[in-house]
Amino acid sequence: MVIPKKNQLIGIDIGSHSIKIVEIEHKKKEKVLKNIGIAYLPPLAVSPSGIKDPEAVKTAISNLFQNLKIKNKKVATGLSASSIITKKISLVESEELNLEEVIKEEAERFIPFDMDEIYLDYDIMDTIYEENEEIARLEIIVVASKKDLVDSYVKILKEIDLVPSIVDVDIFAMQNAFELSNPDVDMEKIYLLVDIGSSTINTNAVKGNISLFIRSSQTGGISITKKIMKEFQIGFEEAEKIKFGIIELEGDQEKKVKDIFRDTVKEWVDEIKGNIHFIHNSYPGEEIEKIFITGGSTNILNIEKFFEKELEIPVERLDPFSGLAIDKNIDPSYLDSIKAQSTVAIGLGLRNIADK
Prior knowledge:
Elements: E1 10-14, E2 18-26, E3 31-40, E4 46-47, E5 50-51, H1 54-68, E6 74-79, E7 85-92, H2 99-110, E8 118-129, E9 136-146, H3 147-159, E10 163-169, H4 170-181, E11 190-196, E12 201-207, E13 210-217, H5 221-232, H6 236-243, H7 251-282, E14 288-294, H8 303-311, E15 315-317, E16 325-326, H9 332-338, H10 343-349
Parallel strand pairs: 1-6, 3-16, 6-10, 11-14, 14-15
Antiparallel strand pairs: 1-2, 2-3, 4-5, 7-9, 8-9, 11-12, 12-13
Helix pairs in contact: 4-10, 5-6, 5-7, 7-8
């Protein structure tokens, strides 16, 4: 489907470690990556619960728009899955069903806030007809977020003259990017998408275009940084340089860092194992075909081989660019260096105003 230029959006992923911006041009026969860039943020500028340093975020976004010479001011951004409430509900379809009213009533049962304090949205994921029955059952995912959180993101974007058109959730944006970059997956199989960022691990189990299970845990690459800080009694920035290999260590110090990496990745594996166990219990007889990993913290050398050995499921790095044509002005080596961090931004850049 061709998306008119006036409906196309710039994707802005506001992460806890960096800002990622993507411009995708939707043409008749292809989607073209026109612009992409990353700006790194000061420590603690953004947390899973929201933006703590608005000025740093505004400066980073403004500089990216200026440096990339992006003219389109209409944007899609995403909230952290750990800051929102999601629940799958099942309703019997009927002519008398007032969907919005019933969903609101259902939401009041599981949302621990006054309904006046939240934004509520939903999506019909599937319509199921049981064998020998004519009545359909609607499988619906309900998403709720505190109004003050959403409004804070919208306010910041408006203050730098952008037009926030869609506020998505990072875990669903990851799924958008996966669907574009992997069009040939078996629609009858379950695939596990795992995004390991700086401060969260997002897991999304998908079958076809349906999300069966989502979970967000507040752990990630930042835990490695904190352990290095504690081990060597150093500050955040120096610990980050050690983590990314900018400061090289030798001997006993190098061994200590390797032990920190190994122990932390093992914790991530245990988290994923728990999610896999839940999926197997929820969908008896179903097996996970493959795990796709993404996120800046997956840049650890050979992490996919370690995951594959521990989880006993094939593991592949998700390439969010594989479904896109690439503008000739974008350096391929730069794209390769930021591939793991770009998945959510790509998913946001695929959205358009008509999605609302």
